Amino acid sequence: MAKILITDGIDKGAAEALRSAGHEVATQFYPPEELCEQVKDFNVIVVRSATKVTKEILDGAAQTGALSLIIRGGVGVDNIDVNYAKQLGITVRNTPAASSNAVAELAVGHMFAVARHIFIANVTMRAGAWEKKKYTGHELQGKTLGLIGFGRIARETARIARAIGMNVVYNSRSGKKDGYDDFEYRSFADILSGSDFISLHVPADKENGALIGAAEFAQMKDGAYLINCARGGVVDEEALLAALDSGKIAAAALDVFETEPPKDERILTHERISLTPHIGASTKEAQQKIGAEVVGIIEQELGGK
Description:
This protein is α/β, with parallel strands linked by helices. It has helices spanning 12-20, 32-38, 55-62, 82-87, 100-115, 118-126, 152-164, 188-194, 214-219, 237-246, 265-269, 284-302; strands spanning 3-6, 24-27, 44-47, 69-72, 91-94, 144-148, 167-171, 184-185, 197-200, 224-228, 249-254, 273-275.
């Protein structure tokens, strides 16, 4: 049976299932310098977004060769040095399907929040203000939602948005997707210029930097809304602030940030940014699904080991 380290938490039922299967399970977060040492003793590591599995940590694991599997409980694996892990013969897996609906619902929730001023009205009312005339918003029905990226989460977002009555268009690096004829494929430039709401569903690109910067904001419709529940670094936050302050875009919603937790007070206090602390997958249902998928991966990968 395997020794499993779960660094960023997991559904209790999943941890119990692993122990019942005979595995030794430790649930403990370690800062990077400690993880480099602790990792030597484990066969499997399960992480979320808080733990970064860097080359240094993998080098620590390589000293004993015990580590054979890394699982990211979530969609992306950008917090894991996947290529280096593979060079060391370590398998990297994730749970791409488990949290799709949860993140999609949050993205749509943020659309309502910015379109109807829900986020800021909550703040000003608590401060004693009654801004009834100030907060005239927009309805989502009939508006065009542009999705940049069209993976599982984007497809769930498209499904929900279409049910609301939005016109959904999308762009994907791999082109038009078969079987999704209810949604129109458009070029990246057309998404930017033709969408009332733009929702991002792409991984961070450390080599090329932000996908949405000053040039992209300039191409957007005046008064557009931007939603990012994907990854921090996809949006240039300085360019976002400039676009908000100039009135180019009406508002933005962010669940992810260049630095987490964010430190920039301009982001934290801006009256036209709806904020959540990276909670896209933070539903009880998604956590149960993630836990079950993690257990399944371990059973599949380790078998009778």
